[in-house]
Write a structure and sequence with these properties.
alpha+beta, 4-stranded antiparallel sheet, 29 helices, membrane
């Protein structure tokens, strides 16, 4: 898939003196050369490693005035000629020739770029029958070009400048029955979400309809004509090409009569049609124009009003993705078989209907590589590793064409235009060929890892042959070459499993080799590698070519896999894979039996797949019981082995987990079997004030599939296997999250099933439900209590009774949390208890929990409990009888007294004017405040007041001579100083908080102590100037205690300020 990285590169086109010189009328990329045509000039650029202008042609002012500006252009497929049509219908034909002059790029390395000359070889006016015609665009083959005109006709011209004249097509296709019966795929939704199955009733082209676009596919000899009324006509072209009208035959209409643009993927045989509805329709040209699917931004929340109609479509050069531009705003890149590619949707990125765009293929790796790694030692999060390729290699061999990772993921093989290099991720070192001549003799067409051996498919240019080269990873040199195996032809696909290599040639010949290594694979020894052919198949099929093939090893129980195997030829044959998966270029996934050559189709519209069984020797492989996974427009699908005739069973993650749909903006790249997650990358953008362009940042993402595997086992009554898998996964990151999603998806499905069957006659339940099995599984782990209440909080309270019928009574789960001192989890059960058991029981549990949280100094949680108690108590009081009202008060007074016993508190507090639900709460809070104040735990007191919103002012006014009283200034100052630890900022803030409250109640003893600790001389001065006796006692106390020597400077400052006051009193 194509992912943008970094800031967009700007190609500085030549600026003209006319405003229209900024426009681009034609953009074409062929063989890493980019042609740009503006109304005034032409420019030819290199679009490879270096963006360099290789040639240009600029028209003079007389030519522009006489013949008009450039209006349309086309570049011949062989890149030798360029045709330009002006606004006055003059045809200019230019010849492109590359000179021997190399472009100097700087540095020591020579450049492979040559300058080009663009010369005009023809200038003729087209003899149109009418002068008021307009031209849609120009298409061509290597001999002729074709123009679409506004009167609905076509005009043919040769590249030699021969005008064949205009001609029209039969307004009715030759096969009307096909048009009427053209079928769609089973379900295709438009952007509005409505099923769209019918074609427009009017399939005849009006003679007055103008041609708005021509599209010609040379490989298929297919001409598409798009008319201004939205009709799209498919035409076949004979071997004569675009020369005359008789060589072009109208075949059928495609679409719904609302097309605005088209683009053909010749390799994939897919037609993309943009519509006025803002959606893109994909048609299978290999299957009579069958509508494959409809793609849109509807699922991302964008409607037709946001984007407008589709403006333009362009396929990537390899036809693996296509870009879509909308008229109002937006640019999106989609992959062929999946709708959730990266979506870039800036607010003001409109696409002019008259200006197309070309998606320039930017190679996935240029001078650097990006890899996703799981760093299990330092952190559980994925990170992106950015590798700079060695300049000495990439400067000669740009671009990177193949990358392969070893099975353990610790080594990378990278191949460019020639040679290859290896990277050791642990040591962070590159290994290259010491002899550059050996490097240049290798043209890599494919890479594989065979254990510690890298396998290179090499193309021999001199003999036009292919071969397999086997190099040890510790040395890249001809002297270390282990084996050289000639191949029959260019391989289409290759794969490796243990000691077996699969090579497939065209049309469909499968060869399997067995590798035997003798000797130790080390620099100090001389190992010997032998390759033998163990299987050859030649299969006749009319299907499309394979895009990938993977061995499917036989899945055997883990216990038997641990047995000692006897090394014998029979054992080697037993281990040889007998099946393989085939992914064809059209997205079809099938299973090939290598014994008899039979192929069984599994599914279609697949873009990626991963074989998971037999891929890991570790016991911690969480997905060993899964055969493989595939990914396409349906989402992620998992395949499990099953007994019986159907040996494999397919399950759709999205169907089972509608709320766990793989993020539509995340493109999956692979699996981490030991973590049970799918790893992908998403396209992110960041903006900077220094540039108008965004910075594109691919970001790694991961999504767990453990919950899907566990549910699969539970659905098949494999509870023991599910428990064993969960136990293996218990130490993995996000294990608790997986259990929560498992219970949530099962419970959500249970709710939906009840809603569907609520009007049906209930049938007595025979076996345990899936919900009960899930609860029984999770109950084996300490996360159970937290998982159950988390799922409850995410679901409607009306269904809690069903959940806790399977999970256990809410009060019992609360009590379990309470005994384990998991108070935060226990607090989450309070609301559930209130719903299921009633407010009286929830008040009782909340009061118990409040006392416990205060004892543990969990003041934020205590504050939440206080607010719940007061709120629910009011509701309970309004609906309860008088006897019920006494229960919370009695429980609060009798059961929840603090361990600190203070008789003065019991005498001073009065419940006369308080509601029954307030009294126990206030009783608990004031008991705790008294406990903290008596122990001078002032930092905790501040946190307690802030967390619970306790009224400290009222409490201090009442407790001035109780628990808040200071017996002695000296001892109080010393004790409070030790408790507060005034050296920290938080302690000073706590002291300021207390000082403010003490000042509000004019509590002198505390004001003097706290102001002294804070060195607030202004507060002390204001206090002492009205009470000189207090000042003298204060001064004498500080001077007489050696431990208070640090406050002598404060005394001096106060004495200086108070001396006028003292003198006036003496007089």
């Amino acid at each position: 898939m194509y992912m943008a990285y970094g800031y967009p590169q700007v190609i500085p086109l030549e600026q003209g003196q006319y405003p229209t010189s900024q426009n681009i009328i034609y953009l074409k990329l062929i063989n890493r050369h980019l042609l740009v045509v503006s109304p005034l000039h032409l420019e030819l650029w290199s679009s490879s490693q270096h963006r360099v202008r290789l040639g240009r042609y600029k028209r003079d002012a007389d030519s522009l005035q006489r013949e008009g500006e450039n209006l349309q252009a086309v570049w011949s497929p062989d890149t030798k000629l360029i045709a330009v049509l002006t606004s006055s219908f003059f045809l200019h034909i230019f010849k492109v020739q590359f000179t021997e002059r190399k472009v100097q790029l700087g540095g020591k390395q020579p450049s492979a770029l040559f300058l080009a000359t663009i010369t005009r070889v023809l200038n003729e006016q087209i003899p149109f029958a009418e002068n008021d015609l307009t031209v849609s665009n120009i298409v061509s083959d290597n001999k002729h070009m074709l123009l679409g005109l506004s009167d609905g006709s076509l005009y043919s011209i040769s590249w030699k400048g021969e005008f064949y004249g205009g001609f029209g097509l039969d307004s009715s296709p030759h096969n009307d029955s096909e048009v009427a019966t053209l079928s769609h795929s089973p379900v295709n939704f438009t952007a509005s979400g409505e099923d769209d199955r019918t074609f427009a009733s009017n399939n005849n082209v009006s003679k007055k309809s103008a041609i708005s676009q021509l599209e010609f596919c040379v490989l298929m000899r297919l001409l598409l004509i798009l008319y201004s009324d939205g009709q799209l006509l498919s035409c076949s072209v004979s071997k004569k090409g675009l020369k005359a009208g008789e060589s072009i035959k109208a075949e059928k209409f495609l679409g719904n009569g609302d097309a605005v643009c088209t683009s053909v993927a010749g390799d994939q045989l897919i037609l993309a049609v943009g519509t006025t509805r803002g959606v893109v329709e994909l048609y299978d040209l290999a299957d009579s124009g069958l509508l494959i699917r409809t793609v849109s931004l509807y699922d991302w929340g964008y409607t037709m009003e946001d984007t407008g109609s589709v403006s333009c479509i362009a396929w990537t050069p390899d036809n693996s993705a296509f870009a879509v531009g909308w008229k109002l705003r937006g640019l999106t890149v989609w992959s062929v078989f999946w709708m959730s590619s990266n979506v870039n949707h800036p607010s003001n990125c409109g696409m002019n209907m008259d200006i197309g765009f070309m998606l320039l293929r930017r190679d996935r790796w240029r001078e650097f590589l990006h890899f996703l790694l799981e760093n299990s030692e330092e952190t559980d999060e994925l990170k992106m590793l950015h590798l700079n390729l060695p300049v000495s290699y990439i400067s000669h061999n740009w671009p990177v064409q193949h990358v392969a990772a070893s099975k353990d993921g610790m080594y990378l093989a990278v191949a460019g235009l020639h040679g290859l290099i290896l990277y050791d991720i642990r040591l962070k070192k590159w290994r290259v060929f010491g002899d550059i001549s050996q490097e240049q003799n290798i043209q890599c067409e494919g890479l594989l890892w065979l254990g510690k051996i890298v396998v290179v498919c090499n193309y021999i240019d001199s003999s036009n042959m292919y071969e397999l080269l086997f190099y040890p990873r510790y040395h890249l040199d001809q002297s270390s070459l282990l084996c050289r195996k000639p191949l029959l032809a260019k391989p289409m696909v290759m794969d490796v499993y243990e000691d077996y290599i699969l090579v497939t040639y065209r049309p469909f010949d499968v060869h399997i080799f067995h590798v035997k290594l003798s000797g130790e694979l080390a620099p100090s020894s001389t190992p010997d590698l032998q390759l033998s052919t163990v299987r050859e198949l030649s299969i006749m099929t009319a299907k499309s070519h394979p895009a990938a093939m993977r061995f499917i090893p036989d899945q055997i129980p883990r216990d038997s896999a641990l047995d000692n195997h006897i090394s014998s030829s029979s054992n080697l044959l037993a281990r040889e894979p007998a099946r393989c998966l085939i992914l064809r270029t059209n997205g079809e996934l099938s299973l090939l039996d290598l014994d008899d050559g039979r192929e069984r189709e599994l599914t279609n519209s697949v873009e990626l797949f991963w074989v998971t069984c037999g891929q890991s020797e570790e016991k911690t492989n969480l997905i060993e019981d899964v055969s493989w996974l595939d990914y396409g427009y349906r989402g992620m699908q998992v395949w499990y082995p099953s007994p019986g005739v159907d040996s494999f069973k397919q399950e759709d993650f999205l169907q089972l987990d509608p709320d766990l749909e793989f993020d539509r903006e995340v493109y999956p790249l692979g699996l981490l079997p030991n973590a049970g997650v799918v790893v992908g990358v998403s396209q992110r953008m960041s903006f900077s004030a220094c540039t108008e362009f965004p910075c594109f940042e691919p970001t790694p993402q991961a999504q767990t599939i453990l919950h899907c595997l566990l549910r699969h086992l539970l659905q098949r009554d494999k509870s023991e296997e599910a428990l064993r898998l969960a136990q293996i996964s218990a130490e993995k990151p996000h294990f608790s999250h997986c259990l929560e999603w498992l219970l949530f998806t099962v419970f959500d499905a249970e709710i939906s099933r009840h809603n569907v069957n609520k009007n049906q006659i209930s049938v007595p339940k025979q076996n345990a439900s899936l919900l009960e099995k899930t609860c029984d599984l999770i109950r084996n782990f300490p996360e159970y209590l937290d998982v159950v209440v988390s799922v409850a909080r995410k679901t409607d309270g009306r269904h809690w009774a069903d959940l806790f019928t399977a999970a256990g009574r809410s009060t019992e789960l609360f009590e379990d949390c309470f005994q384990r001192r998991w108070y935060r989890t226990a607090a989450c059960y309070i609301l559930v208890i209130a719903k299921l058991e009633g407010p009286a029981v929830s008040q009782y549990c909340a009061l118990r929990l409040l006392q416990a949280t205060l004892d543990e100094s969990l003041y934020e949680l205590a504050g939440e409990l206080v607010r719940f108690l007061l709120r629910s108590g009011r509701d309970y009081e309004q609906s309860s009888t008088d006897s019920d009202k006494l229960s919370p008060r009695f429980l609060g007074y009798f059961l929840f007294r603090s361990s600190f016993n203070r008789s003065s508190f019991d005498k001073s507090i009065s419940f006369k004017d308080q509601s029954a639900h307030i009294a126990p709460v206030k009783n608990i809070l004031e008991n705790h405040a008294s406990y903290l104040m008596s122990g001078k735990e002032l930092s905790k007191l501040v946190a307690f007041v802030k967390g619970t919103q306790f009224d400290l002012v009222e409490y201090l006014q009442r407790e001035r001579y109780g628990s808040a009283r200071l017996e002695n200034f000296a001892s109080g100052l010393e004790l409070i100083g030790q408790k507060l630890q005034m050296g920290t900022l938080q302690s000073r803030l706590d002291a300021e908080f207390l000082l403010a409250h003490m000042c509000s109640v004019k509590f002198k003893e505390w004001i003097v102590v706290l102001a002294t600790l804070l060195r607030r001389s202004e507060v002390l001065f204001d206090l002492f100037r009205h009470d000189m006796r207090l000042w003298k006692a204060y001064s004498l106390t500080l001077q007489s205690h050696p431990s208070f020597a640090e406050y002598h400077d404060l005394l001096d400052d106060l004495e200086e300020k108070l001396s006028p006051t003292a003198n006036s009193e003496d007089k």
